[in-house]
What we know:
Elements: E1 4-8, E2 11-14, E3 19-23, E4 26-29, E5 32-34, E6 42-45, E7 49-53, E8 55-60, H1 65-73, H2 75-79, E9 82-83, E10 92-93, H3 100-109, E11 112-120, H4 125-134, E12 139-145, H5 150-157, H6 161-175, E13 179-183, H7 187-193, H8 213-227, E14 234-236, H9 246-256, E15 261-263, E16 271-274, E17 277-284, H10 286-294, E18 299-302, E19 309-315, H11 318-328, E20 333-337, E21 341-350, H12 355-370, E22 377-378, H13 392-400, H14 402-411, H15 414-419, H16 432-447, E23 463-467, H17 472-477, E24 481-484, E25 487-491, E26 494-495, E27 503-505, H18 515-525, E28 543-545, H19 549-553
Parallel strand pairs: 1-6, 2-7, 8-11, 11-12, 12-13, 13-14, 14-15, 15-18, 18-22, 27-28
Antiparallel strand pairs: 1-4, 2-3, 4-5, 7-23, 9-10, 16-17, 19-21, 20-21, 23-24, 24-25, 25-26
Helix pairs in contact: 5-6, 6-8, 10-12, 13-14
Zinc ion (ZN) binds at residues 59, 61, 118-119, 265, 382, 385.
Amino acid sequence: MAAMLRIVNGRVYDPANGLDGVVRDVCLQDGRIVADVPPEAKKIDAHGMVVMPGGVDIHCHIAGSKVNMARKLQPEDHRLDVHPRTRFTRSGTGGTVPSTFATGYRYAALGYTSAMEAAVTPLGARSTLEELQDTPVIDKGFFVLVGNNVLLYRLLQEGRLEEFRNTLAWWLCATKAYAPKLVNPGADELWKGSRNANITLLDDTIGPFDLTPRKVIDAFIGAANDLGLPHPVHIHCNNLGHTGNYETTLETMRIADGRRAHITHIQFHSYGSVAGKSGDNPTSKAREISEFVNTHPNISADVGAVMFGRSTSMTADAPLAYMLRRFGGGKWINADTEHESGCGIVPFTYQDKVYTNALQWAIGLELFLRSEDPWRMVFSTDHPNGGSFMSYPKLIRLLMDREFRKQEMAKVNQKAIEASGLRDCQDRELSLYEIAIITRAGPARLLGLTCKGHLGVGADADVTIYEENADKEEMFSTPRYVIKGGELIIEDHEFRADSDGRVFHVAPDYDPAIEQVIQPFFEDFYSIQFANYPVDIEYLHHHEVVPTTHQAAAPVASETT
Ligand SMILES: [Zn+2]
């Protein structure tokens, strides 16, 4: 594609390149940002508008077997939210778990051009990749669930750390994943082996293994760093949602001990308890969690903010789903995937008058407002767990507009507001520059996607142009233009084209002899033949291998096809 475009007169917010609302041209050619284009190139006059890189969602749930189960579980979620076809785009259904087509178009319609599916079982990789392929416009990848993997536990228990690292690398390659994901490490064994049990302490023994969550977390942080992965291990800590869990979260971050680690949806892990009463209503520990993250540059997090209204809790944390089903009160699903992971799905509605829900909402806001380094405390609602990605514009307004925030605070459970620290930081308003960091530049940097989240020469030509508006919710709901890979997808708020995104994955180096360790395990325990398990590279369509730091030092030919 030889399309050329020059965007003129817009105020450019490009934090990775230090541009804070500077009026300057942005030039695009052949899918990339370039320094200049010839005078005959098509022009967009962005006078009175804000120009940003396309949004990057670091953590959401948009494809895979649990997402599909959630779609099937809730026909009522789709019935009133039909996504009609247009001349350029296909139809779908919406609700909290939109269909693949609607997911891609709706992200694009908010100015997002990349999103990472955050929890896929290795066995579900193939169907997940098919769904991602089916999700239009946006670029994507997925994190693979490895934190309760029986073979990896066996190797770790026996102290075979090199084989552990090689096996992890093999699994990332075999599934075409982007990063390793831990979810409530150790809990699946207890859950499966002893009715309704869960892990509560990092030094608990993991069922039949001579292991603890602490050892597991330490090993994965180490292996991911040793492999030089572009994104470190992505950790859903133990005790999600439990009163008093902030101590587990702090302790988990301490395990990293200077090494990179990413804590996901940290809001759900920032709860205190009334002294001496562990079973009581939670309190906010956003201050303590923020202080730790602020002072430990090796740690990054996404917030996982809660927004009021319908959501769908979908998680690999099976014991969590069991706990939530009491509050959901309706239908729910719980499932295991062989030796790989658990899963639970619970439709859920966050209500502003309910103490716990209002406290969660307040803690999410607190974490953003207390952050001293927006590059490391980035934007998410853990879609659709804390709320749909369709609520992002409202969340942005809550962060940018303190009067609006005060009005919203007045509507919710006041005991929860008192128990939070939100009033302590109520004067802060995030700037457009900071919003550009937490929604684009920061997530891209944390993911190690050097072609995303910025408008420097060589970056992907993913650009969103918003009309300036005092109402930031309206502004971020309806970008005037969305350009993806140099193609004008949305013009004057309307779709003008459709496109496929590409899939990012990693291919870390490993010793092929490790297959002699892995294969016998498959033959003994798996329902699938070893030879049929890995996703072949030919299976992928438009994709790109993102190099590890070792590979980047000695570049290999791009495998983009
Ligand atoms: Zn999640």
